[in-house]
Amino acid sequence: MEYATARNRMVESQLISRGIKDPRVLDAMRKVPRHRFVEEALVSQAYNDHPLPIGEKQTISQPYMVALMTEALELQGQERVLEIGTGSGYQTAILAELAEKIYSIERIRPLSVKAQRILDELGYFNVVLKVGDGTLGLKEEAPFDAIIVTAGSPDVPQPLVDQLSMGGRLVVPVGDRYTQSLMKVVRVKEGITKTDLGGCRFVNLLGTHGWKE
Ligand code: SAH
């Protein structure tokens, strides 16, 4: 099956059917070639309704989870965005379609190097990749209009809340090591608001404000 056809099907049967509505998010999911971000042996599964291994015991998230988290960031096009957990770089590419400038931090260097190569090949030049502990955020580039954490955390990492602009949105899976709730945190004048967007399952966020190794 042609990849574009597979992507259109994915958007209809996995995203629209489950309530993803933001037309810009749906367009980005129709456009970004997810199969480029998975290992050669798994290319035929790239548009299936589940996560896939990307090496180093990490995974590329299920398409629906990518769309749900991205929609929750409410991106309009002008934002500065921070991503924690570059992984394959697929979520990074989706963000690059939807906002002005993306910073993405990954703790495993080989994953970051590989993601950089693919993002370069695809022409995503509004992305800056960093290697390090993303639970500390990226103070020198703060504040951010939106922050997305694509690994499961025991709590909402405080440095990330502190690096949100007024009105900024943070989406982070919070729970135990095996299952989490997808939390949306919004910075408001009075402090923060928190909404639970539902259950999810992510690899562990490891670091100073995450899980200990
Ligand atoms: N967004 C990715 C998902 C990758 S899985 C994708 O679309 O492919 C989560 C990633 O978070 C893993 O690569 C893992 O190494 C990384 N990670 C875990 N803890 C981290 C931390 N403290 N800082 C940066 N990256 C972290």
The amount of beta strand, in percent, is: 25-35%
Under CATH, the topology is which? Rossmann fold
Walk across the major sheet and give the strand order.
5-4-3-6-7-8-9
Supply the CATH superfamily name: Vaccinia Virus protein VP39
Oligomer: single chain
CATH architecture: 3-Layer(aba) Sandwich
Main beta sheet:
7 strands, mixed
How many structural units, i.e. domains? 1
Structural Rg: 16 Å
- Please mark out the parts with pLDDT under 50 across 5 or more consecutive residues, or reply none: none
Helix content percent band: 25-40%
List how many beta strands DSSP finds.
Answer: 9
Shape: globular
**Please, how many helices?**
6
Q: Provide the residue-averaged pLDDT.
A: 98
Order of helices and strands: HHEEHEHEHEEHEEE
Bound molecules: S-adenosyl-L-homocysteine
Describe, in plain words, how this protein is organized in 3D:
With 213 residues, this protein is α/β, with parallel strands linked by helices. The chain has helices at 3-15, 23-31, 63-72, 90-98, 109-122, 158-162; strands at 52-55, 58-60, 80-84, 101-106, 127-131, 144-149, 164-175, 180-188, 191-200. The strands form two sheets. Strands 5-4-3-6-7-8-9 form a seven-stranded mixed beta sheet. A hairpin with a 2-residue loop joins β8 and β9 (191-200). The structure holds S-adenosyl-L-homocysteine. Residues 54, 58-61, 84-85, 87-88, 90-91, 105-108, 111, 133-135, 150-151, 203, 205-207, 210 line the site of S-adenosyl-L-homocysteine (SAH).
